[in-house]
Amino acid sequence: DIVTADCLDYINYGEYDVSLNKKKTQRSKQPDLFVLEDFLKDDRRRDLQITYGTKEEAIGRSKALYGYRKNHKLQDKIRISREDKVITVLKIEGGN
User: Fold this and answer.
1) What is the dihedral of CA 72, 75, 78, 80, to 10 degrees?
2) What is the reported pTM?
3) What is the pLDDT of residues 49-75, one digit of tens each?
4) CA 90 → CA 7, 11, 12, 40, 51, distances in Å?
5) In 10 A of CB 58, how many CB atoms?
6) b (16+ CB within 10 A) / e for 63-85
7) If I label 36, which of 10, 15, 23, 45 is the partner at 20 to 30 A Cα–Cα?
8) Is the sign of the CA dihedral 71, 74, 79, 85 positive or negative?
């Protein structure tokens, strides 16, 4: 038998009748965020440049990187800038 996501609402789990809440599907993490996280862990590197295929893609991803910086309270640790299709991330000296 195959159980699909639609059928999960009807499954009886023993003595508990579980109704599943519909949650927002979380988007998977973009590859550039993995690169940024690895960069932040590497104490030897001070700058990171990520080149995208188009200027529009770079603009969109720069917004995501700014959001990541804000959500992880990294404003005093990294500086993010974009020029055309290239996003540059710099570690700020003294920003521990």
Assistant:
1) 100
2) 0.67
3) 999 999 999 999 999 999 999 999 999
4) 49, 51, 53, 10, 15
5) 20
6) eebeebbeeeebeeebebebeee
7) 23
8) negative
* 39-48 own/partner pairs: CB under 8 Å, 24+ apart: 39/89, 40/74, 40/77, 40/78, 40/91, 45/91, 46/90, 46/91, 47/88, 47/89, 47/90, 47/91, 48/88, 48/89, 48/90
Q: Decide if 35 contacts 48 (C-beta within 8 A).
A: yes
Helices (H) and strands (E) in the chain, counts: 2, 3
Question: Measured between alpha carbons, how far is 59 from 82 in angstroms, rounded to an integer?
Answer: 8
Structure letter (DSSP) for residue 26: P
